[in-house]
Specification:
Length: 225
């Protein structure tokens, strides 16, 4: 039964973060070059050049765009483990009298993370007096699993055992996400302590976009007595 401080830290992270789903958006800010930077050989700000030569700043005309739409797509943990192709029918409003239906396909790869986005440019509605159609985004919404908790490519199971089992030993079966079953047993003579962790290497989720399809995370079993 392998256990390390890294494994304990990983389990604590999964336990604390499991019910807190977040999708933080990070936006990068650009730096403006001043005279001091120009003296150091940095490129000048194009707006400063326009002001110096023409007395004003020229801006590109922005095309107006219709409203974009976001749809959640429910996926089981089994779907995300094995991969799945999903065809989703959407109805799009058009400026012509009739609306249009279209089927968009989402290729759920093995190990696809929760919150992953599929983007389809110009597949949303048309709006009068708008230059461009809106975009469609599908967001993977991972359903809660009755046995496994997930953190990236790692999985966690919480197993409650009796005091007698913790002293005499424990053996139980697990049905994995791929449909296979296997047995887990403590070592002979081993006493399982509350909060002890068993680490099963390469028994977690497939790594996302791994071309070899041979890399997997770990499966952690957290014992509660």
């Amino acid at each position: 039964m392998g256990e390390s401080s890294d494994d304990l830290e990983k389990v604590i992270k999964i336990e604390n973060a499991y019910d807190v789903l977040s999708d933080p958006e990070k936006r990068a800010a650009y730096d403006k070059y001043g005279q001091e930077k120009m003296d150091q050989g940095c490129p000048p700000n194009i707006e400063d050049v326009q002001k110096a030569f023409f007395g004003k700043v020229f801006t590109k005309a922005k095309l107006s765009k219709a409203k974009s739409i976001t749809y959640p797509i429910k996926c089981t943990l089994e779907d995300l483990y094995k991969g799945k192709s999903m065809k989703i029918k959407i109805k799009r409003k058009r400026t012509s009298p009739n609306d249009v239906e279209k089927v968009l396909e989402c290729n759920i790869l093995k190990g696809t993370p929760d919150g992953h986005k599929f983007f389809y440019k110009g597949e949303a509605d048309e709006e009068a007096e708008k230059d461009l159609k809106g975009d469609v985004t599908f967001i993977v919404d991972q359903e809660k699993h009755k046995l496994f908790k997930r953190d990236g490519a790692d999985l966690l199971i919480t197993k409650t055992i009796t005091l007698v089992e913790s002293i005499s030993g424990v053996e139980f079966g697990i049905k994995h996400l791929n449909g296979s079953s296997f047995k887990v047993a403590s070592q002979e003579g081993e006493v399982i302590k509350p909060g002890q962790i068993m680490t099963l290497k390469n028994m977690g989720m497939p790594y996302f976009k791994d071309k070899t399809e041979k890399k997997f995370g770990n499966l952690f079993i957290l014992f509660k007595v």
